[in-house]
């Protein structure tokens, strides 16, 4: 008799999965900016039969504003980039919620691990090396040429032109290369600038590129988008349509719609599905989650488009020890790289056999607080994410003491908070980039919906990675959500 029990249980479970839910008009997978934008657009246009399935225990996706040490901090998206044609800026500007950040992209002085003082003029000349990233090399016409292939020779050519007659300055400038790569990787989100294409379709919106939220955090944008702000009484009825802790493990699509099965055994049916999880999730799960399997060209596009990660580490002190500084650009000399690697000899190293500690280059100041924000980028991001806080804290304390201990009493940090986007299975990274293997055609393939035999869009794809020119941004994600919602709205207007 026991031999039949597993069969009976399986049959009952399958029957339950198939019949437990009535068909919903639209199910949105993911409650990040793309998912919330799609839901808001649908509700505003009278399509109210919607449901959002969210794998996390919170709403927001890669917008994650947390209260920490008395202030709001953004673990994910942090800035509104640009103004013209930027949906985020256009939505928030009229509410008076944006303010231009006190620091620019490259604000903060340059500091050397050798503790050598450099003039403000020389510091500015070194900072100008970042312009190599934004200048267009007209000789590069192929998308499979990497940033590294172009940037490295351009860098050495430029420092030879600027400092070739001054060996001391030239040697200092040469140490800037790793800093420059880390800065570029912070923008691109790649693990190496040899992975990112030099020619990308990404387009900056006109206007200032670094708008912030004061102490409100990026979450205020979602509140405005859903009309919760400024008057909660006018909020769109989204909250009661979101189910948290609902990780979708399978989407079965046929002519009549979709069946979504979650890891907790629950099942839902929908005529339309808008799938918004990150490209990192698609890279990991695309071959297993969709039935029937996605077309080969879509799977190839998912594989070719780049997706990486960065780490933010918020560091709390008992006092502000950095004076009026708004940021710190840390330049490690070759000699100090070797010394730091010996000091942390038993800890992770990069492919150049250098300690993870020397990957710490960019430090930002959170205004009006005793909190610093340290960025880590590059190939060791997955390793540093898994590092215990005590080890990470010791490395950060060591670095600040190394750079500033001769001019100020640098206290030990009290507490740190580290992001873990790469190791979180619901994200598997931070944002997409144009890889050396991808073209804009891959993005177009990724965003194409799957339709049934009579042309109904049954399975649709949204998220920042599906935007041709605004990938890696919140406004790109928002526009992709609007795009897919409008696709459904237009279909129902015609039907």
TrEMBL record:
GO terms, molecular function: polyamine oxidase activity
Gene3D superfamilies: 3.90.660.10, FAD/NAD(P)-binding domain
Domain of life according to the entry: Eukaryota
UniProt signal peptide: 1-20
Keywords, sorted A to Z: Signal
Key word Disulfide bond present: no
Keyword check for Transcription regulation: no
Any Pfam family: Amino_oxidase
Start and end residues of each Amine oxidase domain: 34-489
Record PANTHER family: AMINE OXIDASE DOMAIN-CONTAINING PROTEIN-RELATED (PTHR10742:SF398), FLAVIN MONOAMINE OXIDASE (PTHR10742)
The protein, known as: Spermine oxidase-like
Source organism: Diabrotica virgifera virgifera (western corn rootworm)
């Amino acid at each position: 008799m026991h031999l039949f029990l597993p069969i009976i249980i399986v049959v009952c479970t399958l029957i339950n999965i198939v019949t437990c839910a009535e068909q919903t008009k639209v199910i949105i997978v993911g409650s990040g900016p793309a998912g919330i934008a799609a839901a808001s657009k649908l509700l505003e246009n009278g399509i109210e039969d919607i449901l959002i399935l969210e794998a996390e225990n919170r709403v927001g996706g890669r917008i994650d504003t947390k209260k920490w040490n008395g202030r709001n901090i953004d673990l994910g998206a942090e800035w509104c980039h640009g103004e013209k044609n930027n949906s985020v800026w256009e939505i928030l500007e009229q509410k008076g919620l944006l303010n231009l950040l006190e620091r620019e992209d490259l604000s903060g002085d340059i500091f050397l691990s050798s503790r050598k003082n450099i003039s403000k003029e020389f510091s500015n000349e070194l900072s100008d090396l970042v312009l190599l990233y934004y200048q267009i090399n007209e000789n590069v016409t192929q998308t499979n040429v990497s940033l590294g292939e172009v940037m490295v020779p351009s860098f050495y050519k430029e420092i030879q032109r600027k400092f070739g007659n001054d060996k001391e300055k030239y040697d200092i400038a040469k140490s800037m290369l790793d800093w420059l790569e880390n800065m570029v990787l912070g923008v691109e989100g790649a693990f190496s600038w040899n992975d990112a294409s030099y020619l990308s379709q990404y387009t900056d919106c006109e206007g200032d590129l670094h708008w912030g939220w004061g102490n409100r955090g990026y979450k205020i944008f979602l509140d405005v988008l859903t009309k919760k702000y400024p008057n909660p009484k006018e909020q769109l009825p989204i909250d009661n349509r979101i189910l948290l802790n609902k990780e979708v493990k399978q989407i079965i699509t046929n002519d009549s719609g979709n069946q979504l099965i979650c890891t907790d055994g629950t099942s839902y049916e929908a005529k339309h599905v808008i799938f918004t999880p990150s490209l990192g999730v698609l890279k990991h799960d695309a071959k297993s989650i969709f039935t029937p399997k996605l077309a080969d060209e879509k799977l190839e596009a998912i594989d070719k488009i780049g997706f990486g990660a960065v780490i933010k580490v918020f560091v709390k002190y008992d006092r502000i020890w950095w004076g009026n500084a708004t940021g710190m650009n840390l330049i490690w000399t070759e000699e100090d790289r070797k010394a730091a690697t010996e000091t942390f000899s038993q800890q992770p190293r990069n492919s150049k056999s250098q300690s993870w500690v020397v990957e710490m280059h960019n430090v930002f100041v959170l205004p009006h607080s005793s909190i610093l924000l340290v960025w880590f980028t590059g190939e060791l991001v997955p390793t540093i994410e898994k590092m215990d806080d005590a080890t990470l804290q010791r490395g950060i304390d060591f670095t600040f003491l190394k750079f500033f201990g001769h001019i100020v009493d640098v206290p030990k940090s009290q507490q740190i908070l580290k992001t873990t986007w790469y190791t979180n299975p619901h994200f598997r990274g931070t944002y997409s980039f144009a890889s050396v293997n991808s073209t804009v055609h891959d993005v177009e393939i990724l965003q194409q919906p799957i339709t049934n035999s009579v042309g109904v869009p049954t399975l649709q794809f949204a998220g920042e990675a599906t935007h041709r020119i605004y990938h890696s941004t919140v406004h790109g994600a928002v526009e992709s959500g609007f795009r897919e919602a409008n696709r459904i709205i237009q279909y129902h207007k015609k039907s």
